[in-house]
């Protein structure tokens, strides 16, 4: 495949946009080469500026769970746009989508919409601090909760890919209130509670991690966190920006039957427009301005185009009793196919998967936390990535990222992908 136009556009972009991109992981730094510039997308496919078709396993990093340019979302956005793009006043649609979300997700009474996953997590932490009157939080190494200061402490995703776990610009004062724990290690969390009695406002966690590749919670881990939070008067925040409306209608709370105190959303909830949200029971949400003392706001929050897109997306997911079963079946088919190929070729690997989130690590050792996720960040991954790209299969350009499977993928697409993997495996 030729990427002449993409190369030219990237060179041009680098002149006026830092690194040529508006979000670091798009830059292909981890795998080398030139990012692909996309012109349009439909269903399971991206079409780039050079006219290549790529089967998309990134799907805008999660949101496009029903495929690109999903007609009900596109139509709703067009119709809304004709009536004005922002009012800065309440609209009936905000209540409609809030009612639907509260219905779909267990254990939440109220939801507040923001513009990104970063904002959702940042606001969730402020709310937890305001509610508990405590300042410290626990986060897990390798989990990414957006680029707000308190979270850029051994964060996953682009923040590891670029080796800047502690970003300059985050003050010592902020960093001291973020306690770092090891994913899947309850003893480690327990020790942090013992060392900081009555000081920890919240634990924030990706309940299925997706920013160090996919890392599932070990049996009993989430329940253990729930118990520690209950025993210590600490709130449990599930960052379901990736997992919400993807692993089940009600996210990981529903999938594993664990209750969180605050839940953060992003990605799918916006149907591909810039939306985030955070939600909790009344007693916690009523701490928010204008009813409560914790301030949080946004000029474009609840924007009509964004809400129209999100509402159509959630309605489609809510109405489809089979959607999560279908996504699981497709991803399981892919997983089995990849396992068979790599085993046959004698290539060392680990595959982690929960529902439609999957990652392939080129190392035989289990990947259970940030340290072990590093094993697969190697030359094999880079070759795999570029080999697949040359075959027209687009996976995330970093070993620390998860693939997101879309329902628009057909079994023909999956078979095409497996054939490509078979070819590429010979080069590893
Ligand atoms: N939390 C998680 C789990 C995420 O995966 C991300 C983004 N990848 C965020 C928060 C931040 O969301 P956004 O990029 O929309 O700010």
**How many runs of DSSP E, i.e. beta strands?**
14
- What is the CATH class name of the largest domain? Alpha Beta
| Gross CATH architecture of the largest domain | 3-Layer(aba) Sandwich
Shape: globular
What is the mean pLDDT?
Answer: 95
Helix count, DSSP H or I runs of 4 or more residues: 15
How would a crystallographer describe the biggest sheet? 7 strands, mixed
The share of residues in extended strands comes to 5-15%
**Estimated helix fraction:** 25-40%
Strand order of the largest sheet: 4-10-9-8-7-5-6
Keywords: Aminotransferase, Cytoplasm, Isomerase, Porphyrin biosynthesis, Pyridoxal phosphate, Transferase
Family: Belongs to the class-III pyridoxal-phosphate-dependent aminotransferase family. HemL subfamily.
Protein name: Glutamate-1-semialdehyde 2,1-aminomutase
Cofactor: pyridoxal 5'-phosphate
Structural write-up:
The chain has 428 residues and is of the alpha/beta class. The mean pLDDT is 95. Strand 2 (45-48) and strand 3 form a beta hairpin. Helix 2 packs antiparallel against helix 11 and helix 7 (186-195) runs parallel beside helix 8 (221-232). The protein contains 15 helices and 14 strands. It binds 4'-deoxy-4'-aminopyridoxal-5'-phosphate (PMP). 4'-deoxy-4'-aminopyridoxal-5'-phosphate (PMP) binds next to helix 4.
């Amino acid at each position: 495949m030729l990427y002449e136009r993409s190369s030219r556009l990237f060179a041009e972009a680098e002149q006026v946009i830092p690194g040529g991109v508006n979000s670091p992981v798009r830059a292909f730094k981890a795998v080398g080469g030139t990012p692909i510039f996309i012109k349009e997308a439909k269903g399971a496919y991206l079409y780039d500026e050079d006219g290549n078709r790529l089967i998309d396993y990134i799907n805008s990093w999660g949101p496009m769970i029903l495929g690109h340019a999903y007609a009900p979302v596109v139509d709703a956005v067009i119709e809304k746009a004709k009536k004005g793009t922002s009012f800065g006043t309440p609209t009936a649609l905000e209540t409609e989508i809030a009612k639907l979300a509260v219905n779909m997700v267990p254990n939440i009474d109220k939801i507040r919409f923001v513009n990104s996953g970063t904002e959702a997590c940042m606001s969730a932490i402020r709310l937890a601090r305001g509610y508990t009157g405590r300042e410290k939080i626990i986060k897990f190494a390798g989990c990414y909760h957006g680029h707000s200061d308190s979270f850029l402490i051994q964060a996953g995703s682009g923040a590891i890919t670029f080796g800047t776990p502690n970003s300059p610009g985050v003050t010592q004062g902020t960093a001291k209130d973020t306690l770092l724990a090891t994913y899947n290690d309850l003893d480690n969390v327990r020790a942090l509670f013992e060392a900081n009695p009555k000081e920890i406002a919240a634990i924030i966690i990706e309940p299925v991690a997706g920013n160090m590749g996919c890392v599932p919670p070990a049996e009993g881990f989430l329940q253990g966190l729930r118990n520690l939070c209950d025993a210590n008067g600490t709130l449990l925040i599930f960052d379901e920006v990736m997992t919400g409306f993807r692993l089940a209608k009600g996210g990981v709370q529903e999938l594993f039957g664990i209750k969180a105190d605050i839940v953060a959303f992003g990605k799918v909830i916006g149907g591909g427009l810039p939306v985030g949200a955070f939600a909790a029971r009344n007693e916690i949400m009523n701490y928010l301005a204008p009813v409560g003392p914790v301030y949080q706001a946004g000029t474009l929050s609840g924007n009509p185009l964004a809400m129209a897109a999100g509402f159509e997306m959630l309605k489609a997911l809510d109405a489809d009793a089979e959607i999560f079963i279908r996504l699981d079946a497709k991803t399981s088919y892919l997983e089995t196919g990849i396992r068979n190929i790599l085993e046959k070729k004698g290539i060392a690997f680990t595959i982690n998967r929960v529902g439609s989130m999957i990652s392939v690590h080129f190392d035989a050792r289990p990947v259970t936390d940030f340290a072990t996720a590093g094993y697969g960040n190697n030359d094999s991954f880079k070759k795999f990535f570029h080999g697949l790209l040359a075959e027209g299969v687009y996976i995330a350009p970093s070993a620390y990222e998860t693939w997101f499977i879309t329902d628009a993928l057909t079994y023909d697409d999956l078979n095409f992908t497996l054939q490509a993997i078979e070819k590429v495996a010979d080069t590893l």
